[in-house]
Amino acid sequence: DTEVTQTPKHLVMGMTNKKSLKCEQHMGHRAMYWYKQKAKKPPELMFVYSYEKLSINESVPSRFSPECPNSSLLNLHLHALQPEDSALYLCASSQVANTIYFGEGSWLTVV
Amino acid sequence: GDSVTQMEGPVTLSEEAFLTINCTYTATGYPSLFWYVQYPGEGLQLLLKATKADDKGSNKGFEATYRKETTSFHLEKGSVQVSDSAVYFCALSENSGYSTLTFGKGTMLLVSP
Description:
The complex is a heterodimer of chains A (about 110) and B (about 110).
Chain A: E1 4-7, E2 10-13, E3 18-25, E4 31-37, E5 44-50, E6 53-57, E7 64-70, E8 73-79, E9 87-94, E10 101-102, E11 106-110
Chain B: E1 3-6, E2 11-14, E3 19-21, E4 23-26, E5 32-38, E6 44-50, E7 56-59, E8 62-65, E9 75-77, E10 86-93, E11 102-103, E12 107-112
Parallel strand pairs in B: 2-12
Antiparallel strand pairs in B: 1-4, 3-9, 5-6, 5-10, 7-8, 8-9, 10-11, 10-12
């Protein structure tokens, strides 16, 4: 069973709000990812955690703050976002150097 | 660096037509190749994969063969259904280090009854 669960499905936030996106997997995967996808574009990698340590940060602005509390959970903390940050945020997981499985995504609208 | 090129869409077909979506890649090593599908309003689902040359990935009637000599991984289906309407992404991952994905731009498929 390949399942990555993301909450919330939809989020609307103001530019001064603080919110979080959450992701959970129970497949024993040791790598977890955040991707951002704009309309009609492929996903863009934001962060990679491997064995609960941040391994890749693709020069993402500090208003996005990832956190990996344990091997099953991945959060993305959001603060002082801009309207152009509105997008679909996809969490994914994999065994290290193996096939990546995506969640259903969280639709974020910044107003 | 690595790159993936897919045919431009949208591809518009009638139900039961034959589907081909072309995908070619450039990679420094020996990558694994993937097709992901994204239905409207949803996340990405792994459709099929191939990890070495001449491997054929298949799932739900879709097939793709890893062709090293032509650096291609074309997606095919013999008879499409309306429910196949979606965006299809070809992607590669180098088999070393972290398995980050290099995506093509995506091809939208529209199937009419």
